[in-house]
Amino acid sequence: MVWQNHTRVSEFFPLGLTTNHAVELALFTLFVVIYMLIILGNILIIFTIAHDQRLHSPMYFFLSNLSVIDVCHSSVVMPKMLADFLVDKKSISFEECEAQMFFLHLFACTEIFLLTIMAYDRCIAVCSPMHYGTIMCRKMCLQLATVMWMGGLIHSVSLTALTLSLPYCGPSAIDNFFCDVPLVIKLACTNIHVLEMLLVSNSSLISVVCFLVLVTSYVVILVSLRNHLSEGQHKALSTCAAHLTVVTFFLGHCIFIYLRPAKSLAADKVVSVFFTAITPLMNPIIYTFRNEDMKNALRKLCRRQIDSQDK
Q1: pTM of the model
Q2: What is the Cα–Cα distance from 9 to 12, expressed in whole angstroms?
Q3: Rg over CA atoms, the chain
Q4: Ranges of H-type helices in the chain
Q5: What is the predicted pLDDT for the residue at 4?
C-alpha cells in the first residue's frame, strides 16, 4: 500500500510533559536556559578545538564531532518543545513529524557509533601508545567519521521509510513531547507486529554490537592499566570514566525505549528529557571540566580575547 492513499491524519497532537500551564511556563524558563547552555557549551568546544593546535588530535577531532551532533540532536526537538510550552493546543504536521523522526534517529544513531569509535580510540591510545599515531592517522579518522555518518543515515532512512509505509487514520495523540518511531507507529490503523519486530531487531543489533565493543574496549583498558598507574595513565582513566558516563546515559535511553514493544510507560517522558536535553548538556561539562587539556585551551582562549580587547 502507498501511504499517501491511506493517510487520513494531517497532523499529530503531542501531549507534552504536563497539562498544567503554570508548570509549563516554569519548564519553558528551565529548558530555555538548558538549550542555550547546550548551544553555547558545544560551540565553545568546537571553537576551542579548531583554534588550538595542541588539540588537533584524533580524540579532539571526535570530540568536536560529538559537539556538532549534540547541537543538532537537541535542536531537532527542543525548539518545538519550547514553542509548545507557550500554547494550549499542541500540534505538529505529518510532514514535520516525519522530519523530526528522521533527524532524531540520524543524529542519535550517529552518536552511538561515534561513542563506540571514541572508546576504540582510547583503547588504542592506552594499549598501543607507540603505534597510536600510525593507527589513528588522519585518513583513518576521516574514514571512521564517514562510516558513522553513513551508518546513521542508513538507519534513519530505513526506520522512516517503514513508518511512512503505514496508513494513519486516527487516533493522532502522541504521548510525549516529540515524534518518535515507537510512539507514531502505534497510531497506525493496521497491525504493527511485524514492524515492531523489525524496529526491535534493528535497534537491538546496533545497541548490542556497540555495547560489546564498548565493554571490550574498557575491559582491555582496565587490564592494561591494572598493575601500573602513572600520572598519564590516571589521566587516561579519567577520560575513559567521563566517556563511560556519557555512554551510560545515552545507551541507557536507547535500551529502555527501543528494545521493547511500542507501549507508553510513565517513565518514558523522564527518560526522553535526559536523552534530548540533559545528555547534550552533560557532554560539554564532562569533557571540559574533567579534561586538563581542554581547560588549559579555554584559559588560553580567554586570555587571548582579553588581550585583544585591551588593545
Answers
A1: 0.85
A2: 7
A3: 21
A4: 21-51, 58-85, 94-127, 132-135, 138-164, 181-185, 193-225, 231-258, 268-273, 279-289, 292-310
A5: 46
